[in-house]
Amino acid sequence: MTIMELIEIINSAKQLNVYEARIENSKITMSCINGLEMNDVSATNVKISDANLSDLEIHGAQMGGAYIHSIGMPPEGHLYYDPNAKQRPLKFDDCDLHGSTITDCNLSKVAIANCNLTGMTINGVLVEDLLRVYKDK
């Protein structure tokens, strides 16, 4: 078993280049990591909270079991709450979301195009049935 060395960087500006390293169970708190790039990494059990992830791009990732929740603008009472701020749209492209669940989400003005909708339901109603009724009108 490898003994992990603890390195603390506190109230400092640094650029880290980390190669072939084991830094599991590390913690980054109240820090700016704008422009951070991670490539060919194992990041299981990573948790991100109270973060501004605007313009985040995740590409070629395996996310089975991921739990994405409470996404949107900071709520009233939060330090960065702005009642006039508007959430910019998210984009999902070429994603395998089969068997996934979307609950208690604002999906107003969401566009779904060129997707396999087999077995997809909205509030328990098959989307295929809804589309069939719509087309038969």
Structural class assignment: little secondary structure
Largest sheet: 2 strands, antiparallel
The share of residues in extended strands comes to under 5%
Radius of gyration: 20 Å
| Strand line-up in the sheet with most strands | 1-2
Instruction: Give the proportion of residues in helices.
Output: under 10%
Total DSSP helices: 1
Secondary-structure element order, N to C: EEH
First and last CA, distance: 67 Å
Number of strands: 2
Indicate the mean pLDDT: 92
* Overall shape: elongated
Structure overview:
This protein is mostly loops and 137 residues long. 7% of the residues lie in helices and 3% in strands. Strands 1-2 form a two-stranded antiparallel sheet. A hairpin with a 2-residue loop joins strand 1 and strand 2. It is elongated, with a radius of gyration of 20 Å. The mean pLDDT is 92.
